[in-house]
Amino acid sequence: MNASKGRDDLTTIDHLKKKLAKFVKDRDWAQYHSPKNLSMSIAIEAAELMEVFQWANIEESHKILKNKKKLEDIKDELADIAMFVMEFCNMFDIDLSSAVLKKLKKNAKKYPTQLVKGKTHKYTYYK
Prior knowledge:
mainly alpha, Helix Hairpins
């Protein structure tokens, strides 16, 4: 399988960002991609993903993933979110891989395993 068919273990973020950049350029959409518009688009698409699960309890939310139609809707929303995130990075020269790795380091310090493992509350509330 090649990267153009898509598979996480074969397709790089750079490859996706380049394909997206060409898609946007071909349609002359960059003129509309301000930080405000892109950040709003990320939030809007995230809300559309949340809508799929709205009113479902935890058990029902897992069952939704077994519905083929709903799963396709979920994949579409996740793709929309990812594309707007990558387009934000393209427009403002942000290296997404570096940003994610840097944030993981910050989170590891902020949420040490020994204080947060298996807990849903913010550990600082109970220090």
